[in-house]
Amino acid sequence: MNKIKKGDQVMILSGKDKGKRGAVIAVVSAGKVVVEGINIVRKHQRAMPMKGISGGIIEKPMPIHISNVGLYNPGTAKADKVGFRLLGDGRKVRYFKSTNEVVDV
After folding, report:
1. Any idea what DSSP says for residue 66?
2. What distance in Å separates the CA atoms of residue 66 and residue 94, rounded to the nearest whole number?
3. Residues 15, 41: contact at Cβ < 8 Å?
4. Which of 18, 21, 26, 22 has the alpha carbon at shortest distance from 36?
5. Where are the strands (E) in the chain, listed by range?
6. Helix, coil or strand: residue 67
7. How far apart, in Å, are the Cα atoms of 28 and each of 15, 63, 91, 95, 102?
8. Phi, psi of 67, rounded to the nearest 5 degrees
9. Which of 100, 38, 43 shows the shortest CA–CA distance to 66?
């Protein structure tokens, strides 16, 4: 079970987008995540008429290392550390370490 999952609201802890918030679009296998609106780069793309791709400069989000993001805690309005806990019925859930609230039920 990963501490950061697809669809989570995260806050950027370091880098050029420090302090911004966004949702996780994808978790890349090498310990990186793609967050919407974060780490946007401009890419020059060649036109490929056979595939229906137009050329030009496109903007797209690139992966950011998972250590540079923290799960957003709506109770404190800050990024928070995440731990794991077993519930009484045997389920393994994530919880915020500062407030001991369960993240996903």
Report:
1. G
2. 16
3. no
4. 22
5. 9-12, 21-28, 32-35, 40-45, 56-61, 64-65, 69-73, 78-80, 82-86, 92-96
6. helix
7. 19, 8, 25, 22, 25
8. -75, -15
9. 38
- Cα dihedral value 90, 93, 96, 100, nearest 10: -20
Q: Spell out the domain ranges in the chain.
A: 9-79
User: Which pLDDT belongs to residue 105?
Assistant: 66
Q: Does domain 9-79 have CATH number 2.170.150.70?
A: no
Nearest one of 67, 69, 73, 78 to 96, comparing CA atoms: 73
pTM of the model: 0.84
- 5's tokens: 């999952």
Quick: pLDDT tens for 1-43. 689 999 999 999 999 999 999 999 999 988 999 999 999 999 9
Helix and strand totals (H; E) in the chain: 0, 10
